[in-house]
Amino acid sequence: PGVVGLRARGCVLRRRCVRPVAPVRAAVRARDVLAGTSSGPRVLRRMPPLIVSDACVDTFAGALRAALDES
């Protein structure tokens, strides 16, 4: 919901959203998950470490889903 595209290069994941992501990023960060923006106001970036656990991926996915639902 709200994500219209996904691009990746190495471990950097970019999600293009239908609305500006500044509030989404703030909501994700409020859940103790780091995410960034890019020069595009509708792009949310995630740069996980090279070794990432399934639990970390699940945590990010849950935080992103909740943030998109509330914003």
Describe the protein's architecture and organization.
- This protein is of the alpha+beta class.
- It contains two helices and four strands, in the order ββαββα.
- It has helices at 22-30, 54-70, and strands at 3-9, 12-17, 36-37, 43-46.
- The termini are close together.
Largest sheet, spatial ordering of strands: 1-2-4-3
Q: In angstroms, what is the radius of gyration?
A: 11 Å
Principal-axis shape equals: globular
Count of helical stretches: 2
The overall pLDDT average reads 85
The amount of helix comes to 25-40%
Q: What can be said about the biggest beta sheet? A: 4 strands, antiparallel
Q: Which segments are poorly predicted (pLDDT under 50) over 5 or more consecutive residues?
A: none
Whole-Å distance between the termini?
Answer: 11 Å
Helix-strand pattern: EEHEEH
Strand content: 25-35%
Q: Which structural category fits the helices and strands?
A: alpha+beta
Tell me the number of strands.
Answer: 4
